[in-house]
């Protein structure tokens, strides 16, 4: 396991955008920003609260919370979030986390399916923390989750390696237009770490095929991917979901930038497509290309700001550099964006 620890840390330092805080004195996320985030979204039990979604918690939020606590170099907060995650969500027999926890009902788990992006985020954060902080328990837990992901949701279909959004409900014959994927569940920066934890050629195939699909998914006049995509024949918006570029997909360009993707054509297409006439990001109806909801929060705006930094060296505007948490999701994206720029593109600050 010590060899795994050394390999992950070396891989992290050599490849990833913001894997390891430089030191306790110089974390990737400043203490003030992390204190503001956790005061708003982290409760005493260790759960991250989605305050725009009925104050529920979910595996995605726990994974983001772990990653941000790691980037803030705060082991005690990391352990607090991990305690809730492992005791309240890691309940499935297959080693993956249940995705939804609701404080208003008993039992609190209201959907036992997993959400694969949450599992990836949890395993990724555990691997980074275990490597940097020399915690073997974290590395062991990360390995188990990565192995479960490989066994249950990384699958071959139609000549592609894909990530199922959950272990149940996304494949034929139960779903006529299956398989169905969510493109934003591919956290490209984490995939090489998953390959270290659970060695398999499938991880590289997942990354390669995921990039190919993103380049191909150009739906409607704005040429954007949908939140939910059927791969039954050729990629198209999945049945039973609004055919939209929505809250899920808004993070795709940020994930690409954080993973070191330098495909300017792809990044510019996504950035242009997700920008409404007022200059703010928006959700869009894909068939018509009409905006559905403007996303003016700095946490959404920073997605385009990061793309502009990476592709053109444009400085991050002051409005995006100032962190005042409001809603869980955009606040999370803003910290991920600022952490990335501060670590890899300080010239943009």
TrEMBL record:
One of its GO terms (molecular function) is cellulase activity. The keyword Signal applies. Keywords: Carbohydrate metabolism, Cellulose degradation, Glycosidase, Hydrolase, Plasmid, Polysaccharide degradation, Signal. InterPro entries: 6-hairpin_glycosidase_sf, 6hp_glycosidase-like_sf, Glyco_hydro_8. The keyword Cell wall biogenesis/degradation does not apply. It is an enzyme of class 3 (hydrolase). Residues 1-24 form the signal peptide. It catalyses: Endohydrolysis of (1->4)-beta-D-glucosidic linkages in cellulose, lichenin and cereal beta-D-glucans. SUPFAM superfamilies: Six-hairpin glycosidases. GO terms for biological process: cellulose catabolic process. It comes from the Bacteria. Gene3D superfamilies: 1.50.10.10. Its EC number is 3.2.1.4. Belongs to the glycosyl hydrolase 8 (cellulase D) family. This is cellulase. It comes from Rhizobium grahamii.
């Amino acid at each position: 396991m010590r060899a795994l620890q050394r390999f992950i840390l070396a891989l992290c330092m050599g490849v990833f955008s913001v894997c390891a805080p430089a030191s306790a004195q110089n974390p990737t996320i400043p203490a003030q920003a992390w204190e503001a985030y956790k005061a708003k979204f982290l409760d005493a039990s260790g759960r991250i609260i989605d305050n725009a979604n009925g104050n529920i918690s979910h595996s995605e939020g726990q994974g983001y919370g772990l990653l941000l606590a790691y980037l803030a170099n705060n082991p005690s907060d990391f352990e607090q979030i991990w305690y809730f995650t492992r005791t309240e969500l890691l309940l499935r027999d297959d080693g993956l986390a249940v995705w939804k926890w609701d404080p208003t009902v008993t039992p609190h788990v209201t959907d036992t399916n997993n959400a694969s992006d949450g599992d990836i985020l949890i395993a990724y954060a555990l691997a980074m923390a275990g490597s940097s902080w020399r915690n073997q328990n974290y590395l062991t837990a990360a390995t188990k989750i990565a192995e479960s992901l490989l066994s249950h949701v990384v699958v071959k279909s139609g000549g592609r390696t894909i990530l199922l959004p959950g272990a149940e409900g996304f494949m034929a014959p139960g779903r006529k237009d299956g398989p169905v994927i969510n493109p934003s569940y591919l956290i490209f920066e984490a995939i090489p770490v998953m390959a270290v934890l659970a060695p398999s050629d499938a991880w590289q195939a997942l990354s390669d095929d995921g990039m190919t699909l993103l380049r191909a998914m150009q739906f409607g006049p704005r040429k954007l991917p949908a939140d939910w995509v059927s791969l039954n024949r050729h990629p198209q918006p999945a049945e039973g979901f609004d055919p939209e570029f929505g809250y899920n997909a808004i993070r795709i360009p940020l994930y690409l930038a954080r993973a070191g993707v330098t495909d300017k054509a792809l990044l510019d297409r996504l950035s242009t497509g997700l920008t409404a006439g007022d200059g703010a990001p928006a959700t869009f109806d894909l068939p018509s290309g009409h905006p559905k909801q403007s996303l003016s929060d700095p946490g959404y705006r920073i997605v385009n700001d990061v793309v502009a930094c990476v592709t053109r060296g444009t400085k991050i505007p002051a409005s995006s550099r100032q962190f005042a948490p409001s809603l869980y999701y955009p606040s999370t994206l803003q910290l991920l964006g600022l952490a990335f720029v501060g670590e890899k593109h300080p010239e943009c600050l």
